[in-house]
Design a protein that fits this description.
About 20% of the residues lie in helices and about 25% in strands. The chain starts with a helix and ends in an 8-residue tail after the last helix.
Length: about 180
């Protein structure tokens, strides 16, 4: 039940802003991760409501940006736990809370496996590899691997974007 509420909240939140570019006008989100045809927009403010599994305030919205000739399409939300806190297993083994390894390469913090630089520099001589906080994806469109899939491959993103377009009725805006 919580997953459905989270998905519904993500859709409600996303339609509040009709155009992808409007997020920058509000100054509370920034582009954190752009890889494999996706962009994650993360909350960048001091309100703790955007941490944890809070359906009304997702930590991040995830968009497909690799759909040729189409504006970014909302795929789902990502929830981030506070540092050192495990995510609640509301769906048992189906809720795949996970972390990503951060390494220091060339003075930049890089998400290992994605080759994406995060904000802020690092000193390779003193850096100790670390993991991100735990996160959970909740997809609001048909997504390979299911509603909580942690597959962020180009193939999964492309399939989800195409599935969202296929569900759109003539004359209706895509999600």
């Amino acid at each position: 039940m919580a997953a459905l509420s989270a998905g519904a909240a993500a859709i409600h939140f996303a339609v509040t802003f009709e155009h992808f570019s409007e997020y920058s006008l509000y100054g509370v989100f920034f582009l954190r991760l752009a890889t494999n045809g996706e962009e994650h927009l993360l909350y960048d403010g001091g309100n703790p409501a955007y941490q944890g599994l809070n359906p009304q305030d997702p930590s991040s919205l995830v968009y497909a940006i690799n759909v040729t000739g189409h504006a970014p399409i909302l795929l789902g939300a990502m929830y981030l736990m506070p540092d050192g806190v495990n995510g609640p297993q509301v769906g048992g083994g189906l809720t795949r809370w996970h972390s990503h390894l951060e390494v220091c390469q060339g003075g930049q913090i890089i998400v290992a496996g994605f080759n994406v630089a995060l904000r802020g520099p690092c000193d390779p001589s003193t850096w100790k590899d670390q993991y991100t906080t735990q996160m959970l994806h909740v997809w609001v469109v048909p997504y390979p691997g299911g509603v909580f899939s942690d597959d962020l491959s180009t193939a999964a993103t492309t399939a989800a974007g195409q599935a969202a377009l296929a569900e759109t009725k003539p004359g209706q805006l895509a999600p």
